[in-house]
Design a protein that fits this description.
Distance between the termini: 9 Å
CATH topology of the largest domain: Jelly Rolls
Organism: Pagurus bernhardus (Common hermit crab)
CATH class of the largest domain: Mainly Beta
Helix content: 10-25%
Pfam families: PITH (PF06201), Thioredoxin (PF00085)
Strand content: 25-35%
Number of strands: 17
Protein name: Thioredoxin-like-1 protein
CATH architecture of the largest domain: Sandwich
Number of helices: 6
CATH superfamily of the largest domain: PITH domain
Number of domains: 2
Radius of gyration: 22 Å
Keywords: Disulfide bond
Amino acid sequence: EVNTKLSGEHSDSAGYYHFLPSHSFSRPYLAQFSIIMSSNYKVLTEDGQFQTELGQAGGKLVVADFTSARCGPCQRIAPVFEEMARKFPNGVFLKIDVNQCQGAAASQGVSATPTFVFYRNKTKLDSLQGADPETLENRILHHYGDIEGEEAEDTGVPGHIDLIPMISKSGCECLNESDDHPFTQALNSSGGYLESDTDEQLILYLSFNQAVKLHSMRMKGPADNGPKTIKLFINQPHTIDFDTAESANPVQEVTLTGKDLEGELIPLKFVKLQNVMNLTIFVKDNQSGAETTNVAYIQIIGSPVQTTKMGDFKRVTGKKGESH
């Protein structure tokens, strides 16, 4: 829990205020952490390194720990942060001392230590203050994505991210998918593909782990049996059936060309897609009228509606508003 009571005696020479200890870590808890430094854990000592690391991370989740050597809670959470780097190998974990990198800290609005800031594609997703290991891990899990092996792809759209890692796998479904080529094979560009089963139509229901805004999408497929007509529906209470998909009015209908299927950006009606919890994609037909439809890759591009609030996660110690 974040301590809301600040006083001058807890500030350092750079003017950063430190929270009083809010969570004590027992020796058995600390003993479980490995002493081996992960390759995705980096200690920054100069301001210029910060933007460089964000750029090199691409679509990976970046977690920046703005810390201070003079901050007791920072030192206690440090081994936990290092362990998170080992536990989440597809993320990038940056330790940034606010006294050594004052410019980076100021540019990110850091006013207390420890502060953890989350990024993807150089876009700030969220921030968290305080030295609570359970809340930190929950927040990383929230942004890391729960589809195993999925890593965010670069979108090429400034200010927006690949939303595929924010999909809740347990809440997704695809109707008429082939057993050999399910929809999960189309959620990255590693070479698999989604294929329909008994005819050319597909219904793909994607559920996000938080409300998002949809900006655009990409859908790749073969020139002969790649998707042609797609209808988009949002915030359905459950997966709709094919009769409903045929007759209902979508939020948007798109006719894809062969060029689109090569990975062209497909603009969406951004103003109508501002608070989306789930997206239904109905593939009505394919390019040539072939018996089955093949989808090589789907990318959904957008951004979270808002950053996550501390109250969304389990409170470990004390009551809301209490100081420690």
